[in-house]
Write a structure and sequence with these properties.
The protein is 35% helix and 15% strand. It has ten helices and seven strands.
């Protein structure tokens, strides 16, 4: 794919740089199902007739639904927050407070994009009480992704969005569907986990259950295919041991704000098919 589309959100672990590799491993089909859609780079850079896109982060899915149904209004209102007066620490923390107190879907969705683009290094993180707690990013001039928002809004007409458990999304698969899973990765160290981006942990039990879900799906729906991405560790090699194929690669990590601190780490892709 020559003309790649970037996601409008900054996203730790986003798959923009790996889209070509992922697309080569994904088979053809009518529908791509993503139980962990995240910022949507695979969705934006693949070509299926239909998409079923899920994420446990309700704020994220609400943004996507608004872009699907009210793109012009959403983009117009969101752009108002991208000015010098709003790019101040005091303003950021006040808007973060408003976001955490709000129950209005449109207001939260507008602020979600603002917080994402003005917060530290594209992190999306909530505390145990469900409060968004990413600190101010101190960027000179945060980019307003108008073009990226418009591209997403246009392609979203081919998608349906859900906010549910990944098991429920797997259950939507029918013969010929392709499932791509980009779960919160197994941490490489005890201090390297960013799995609380939706206020829900994704521990080793969930990692193993996801592998089980992949195995069960290709038995129940034998013409479906499942591809899972994760860190290449002893643990992931063990839980994916029943995959038909495992591809290993080295990928630059972009969670460090300093470019020289971004080292390559091992990843793997486990492909399940009958």
């Amino acid at each position: 794919m020559t003309n790649k589309n970037r996601a409008f959100l900054k996203w730790a672990g986003g798959k923009y740089t790996l889209c070509d590799v992922i697309n080569k491993m994904l088979p053809k089909g009518d529908c791509l199902i993503e139980p962990f859609v995240g910022a949507g780079s695979v969705f934006l850079n693949s070509n299926y007739k239909r998409y079923i896109l899920n994420d446990i982060n309700r704020d994220l899915i609400n943004v996507y639904k608004l872009l699907q149904t009210q793109p012009e209004r959403y983009i117009q209102e969101a752009q108002k927050l991208f000015s010098e007066q709003h790019n101040q620490a005091d303003a950021y923390y006040e808007y973060r407070k408003v976001f955490n107190a709000s129950t209005d879907v449109f207001e939260r969705s507008i602020l979600f994009l603002y917080l994402n683009r003005h917060g530290y290094n594209g992190l999306c993180r909530y505390n145990k009480s469900g409060g968004y707690n990413v600190p101010f990013g101190k960027y000179k001039k945060p980019y307003f992704p108008q073009k990226e928002l418009q591209i997403f809004a246009e392609k979203s007409q081919r998608a349906e969005f859900h906010c549910e458990n990944y098991r429920d999304t797997f259950a939507r698969a029918t013969d010929g569907d392709v499932i791509y899973c980009d779960p919160p990765y197994v941490p490489l160290s005890k201090t390297a986990s960013f799995t609380s981006y939706a206020g829900n942990g994704f521990g080793l039990d969930e990692q193993a259950d996801l592998a089980n879900a992949a195995e069960e799906t290709i038995v129940d729906v034998p013409k479906a295919t499942v591809l899972i991405s994760n860190h290449d560790t002893i643990w992931t090699r063990k839980i994916y041991e029943h995959a038909k194929r495992i591809r290993k690669l080295n990928v630059a990590r972009t969670i460090s704000q300093k470019g020289n601190g971004r080292k390559k780490v091992g990843e793997l892709m486990a492909l399940y098919k009958a």
